[in-house]
Write a structure and sequence with these properties.
Length: 323
Amino acid sequence: MKKILGIGNALVDILVNIEDDKILSEYGLDKGGMVMIDADRKREIHEAIQNMEQTCATGGSTSNTIHGLARLGAPAGYIGKVGHDKMGDFFKSEMQRFDVTPHLIDSDIDTGIATTFISKDGERTFATYLGAAATMSPEELDPSVFEGYDCIHVEGYLIFNHDLILKVCQIAKEKGLQISMDMASYNIIEANYDFVKMLLTDYVDIIFANEEEAKAFTGKEGVEALNVLSEYCPIAIVKIGKDGSLIKMNGEITTIAPVDAVRRDTTGAGDIYASGFLFGLLNDFPAQKSGDLASYLSARMIEYIGAKLPDEVWLEVKHKFFE
C-alpha cells in the first residue's frame, strides 16, 4: 500500500465538560467562540480545571486526518513540533500507539494545547495555545523524512507561514510526492488569496474545500466552484454540508450522497472526511467508493464529542467497506 505523510500544527486536545458557564466568563471566553491564548493564560486555565473531568487526545487538523488514515490501515507518518513536556510526550506516544510514525521536532516552548469547554447545552468554547507548533520553521524540515512516502497532506492553517508551507511543497515535489491540502478556513483564503492561488497552480494535486472556502477562492458555489478548483488541481473536492459532497477526478464529477447522522459535535468531521478519501486514493479506489467512505466517516464523527472515533466504529467501518 502507498504511504502518506502529514504536516501540521501538533496540538493536544483537552475536552472539559463544565457544569455551568462561570469559568468562561472568568477567563474572558465568549461562549461558542475561539480565542488564542498565551502561555501564562494557558497555565492559569489548566490550574483552574485540574480537578475537572478531562479527556485528552492528539489534535490539529492534519494530525486528525493522519490518525484516521492509520486507523483505516494506511502506513502513515506525521511532521509537527512539540515541547519537552508532558503533553509533548503524550502526543508522541499516542502517535506510536496508533501506528503513526512520528517525525517530531523538539522545542523548548510548551506543546500546543486546544482546550475545549463543553457546556451543558452542548455548545463548545475554545481556548487555543499554539505554543511550539507556531514556531516550526523551514530550516527545521529534514528532506530525508519525505523519502519513502507517496503523498503528503498539508494543513491549511500553515498557510499563515508562507515560507514553511512553500518549503514543504518544494521538498515534496522534489521527492515525487503528491500534495494534498485542506483549505482550512475561508478567512485564511481571503487573507492569503494570491499565495493560495500560487500554491494550487504550482504544487497542489488534491484540494479539499467546504462551501465557504470554495466560494472564498472561486467566487462561485457547488459544481461551478468545483470546476474552477479542478482547473488548478487534478483532484478537487467540495463538501456541501447536509447535501453531501462533490468530487472531480480524471475530468469526471462524482456526487457523494450525505449519510444520515445525529449531530452532536462537528469537530473533526472535515478532517476525517479527508482520511476516508485519501485512503481510497492510496488504494486506487474509484471516486465513488472513496467519497462514500469519506462521507460515512464524517457522518459518524459528528455523532461523538471530540475528533476521534471509538474502536467499535472503526470495526463497523471496516466491516461495511472492506469485507
